[in-house]
Specification:
The chain is mostly helical. It has 10 helices and no strands.
Length: 252
Amino acid sequence: MENKQLWYQYSLRLGDNSLIMGHRLSELCGHAPTLEEDIALTNIALDLVGQATMLLELAAGLSDQYTSADELAYLRIEKDYTHAMLVEQANTDFAHVMLKLYLFSTYSLQTWEQLQHCAFEPMQAIAQKAIKETKYHLRHAKEWIKRLGLGTDESNRRLQNAVDTLWRFSEDLFAQTPEDQQLVAQNAIPDAAKMYATWTNAVTQDLADVSIQIPNKNYMILGSRAGRHTEHLGFILAELQYLPRAYPNVSW
């Protein structure tokens, strides 16, 4: 398979991750616990949608089927999305929101730090911009993880519940396809297996520092790279895609 198709699939994966995570955070607009946090989460959501736009535009330029980021975002069906299942999980409570952001941002920062040196210049440029934003996202999430873990018994309990609920989706962040492995062999993208080990060690230590334990379970839910998702994605797409599907080719 030529590199054009390999980079299309990889760009699409990263773009879908940012798109769905950004959409989930946008749901907190007007519903965060404080006005300051409302603004912070909205800005993070905008950063992620901006990253998604760049990545999906890159993917569209490499695609033989789609011509724009909008088509990729709004005109695909569920099984054609390849984002990690973690990012589509519901905003059950504030602890779930901040844990998802923390887990995802830790993964994203590791990814962008390695991609900023990749030989594919369009991806390198995106990574160099995204890394600055993601450092802020991670710092913000870690501050809340600390507050929740070391705050009250209730906040610690809610954060532990979020870890117990969401941890099963964490390995799926690092899922690789045979096509990804071709890019890894070319030293073009990070090796997900090595990243997963580094990520797990960092996350385990950060959570232990705030009195949160990783579940002692081996069961992980995988399959996003093959288009398998949880029931949440259908509801997300019903909202996300309503306008462009109801009014095709509308312009403002």
